[in-house]
Amino acid sequence: MARLIIMGPPGSGKGTQAEHIARHFGIPAISTGELFRTHVRNKTELGSEAIGYMDSGEFVPDHVTTAMLRGRLEEADAADGFLLDGYPRTVIQIGALDEMLADRQQTLEVVLELTAPDEELLARMLRRAQEQGRTDDTEPVIQRRLELYRDETQPVLTAYSQRGILLSVDGSGQRETITKDAIAALEGALAR
Ligand code: ADP
Asked: Which residues line ligand 1 (CB under 6 A)?
């Protein structure tokens, strides 16, 4: 079973693509953003710790995020394979994930990057704000999330590229076409 990561700037559609890709490979899509939003909805202690960071577009502190992810990966459905969405977002988190996987004698197979021009990202997020009412989809918060992506998350892509496991797919255009391209690229990489 595949152990994959999907990465892409806010608004790149990675959450939607993650669902479709994970279904194709028969693995769970694990989104740290979704896990946080579920905690917030259920008014858990973790949710109340996270909400202030999320609503201002900042990263939730590593110890909180990493502990939450570790717990999720221990669930039975993630024993052999998973598609991570939203983690790692910092170079520190790469190390934390490496440790989690080493404990399980597992390695990462492929990191898929979805690319899209900034104008398209902003437009998609503003549309999503109207459709879904995510409280972090306001223009100043979106700008902050894009900035953090450039400053903190691009180096994660560089690190995976140096490991030789990074694949990039054009994330602009039709949802179905992007899903097909992404699955084809992943299958090619997994077969090697
Ligand atoms: P997006 O990629 O559109 O910004 P996500 O749904 O992936 O949205 O994440 C929403 C928010 O959840 C982030 O802005 C951040 O506050 C928090 N979050 C998610 N993943 C992480 C992570 N790996 N580290 C720190 N914070 C995170």
From this structure: 10, 32-33, 36, 53-54, 57-60, 65, 86-87, 89, 93, 136, 145
